[in-house]
Amino acid sequence: MILLFLILWEVGVRVFSVPQYLLPAPSVVFQTLIANPAEYARATFITLGEALTGLVLGVFAGAVLAAFLTLFPGLESGVMILAIFVKSTPLVAIAPLLTLWLGFGVLPKIIITGLLTFFPVLVNILSGLHQIDSALMDLFQSWRASRWEIFFHLRLPSALPYLFAALKISAPLALIGAVVAEWTGASGGLGRTMWMAYTNLNLPFLFAAILILAAIGVLLYRFLVWVENRVVFWVQPLQE
Questions:
Q1: For residue 120, what are the CA distances in angstroms to 77, 141, 143, 167, 207?
Q2: How far apart are CA 198 and CA 184, in angstroms?
Q3: Residue 64 · residue 57 · CB < 8 Å
Q4: Is residue 236 left, alpha or beta, with left meaning phi > 0 and alpha meaning psi from -120 to 50?
Q5: Domains, the chain, ranges and CATH?
Q6: pLDDT tens-digit profile of 131-160?
Q7: H-helix segments, 74-145
Q8: pTM recorded for the entire structure
Q9: 3-class SS at 208?
């Protein structure tokens, strides 16, 4: 399907004589990528480092807060209102402020990425910690298990599938967060490469960066699926 899409794209651009500053052909995009390997490798390393660090930060914060709210449910309503407030705030408005306050280094990019990935992790893990088998809960209570024992031995295993669902959503979002943050000011990265290419109407350069981001997103997703199949081995898809 991907090959067919690229062929149709290539044929369409050439048949209708679409200029490069509007839509470059895939062959031109690949030529641009091959002609500038060092520049794209350096930019990819910067953006991927920011995205993964922000993803780890967002996942850690979301998981810790979800566990805290599960153990102390009386605080859930107030904390979730604050979390929704953070989620509803446009990050394109926060990114310039963080760049202004913290400079053009990697820290603002990591914070933006962490904020973008925090909410999906919080909501999914919180749902997973609450979605437990009632029969197993009755069994644990009959054993007089403590709240902590129920949390570690029942709630956490039940939440693992939800954690991987959150990771599969958040990993591509982390790339988007890093790129958006780089648009507000950066010395390197794929976001800066895309912005410079856009301002110069150099669309082959822009599409080459987009291609790299898409490929990284696919690889991250497939890697998470591979890990999930080995960690959450007791959850199997329904067989028809």
A1: 17, 31, 34, 8, 28
A2: 14
A3: no
A4: beta
A5: 26-231 (1.10.3720.10)
A6: 887 788 888 888 888 888 888 888 888 889
A7: 76-88, 91-102, 107-130, 134-142
A8: 0.84
A9: helix
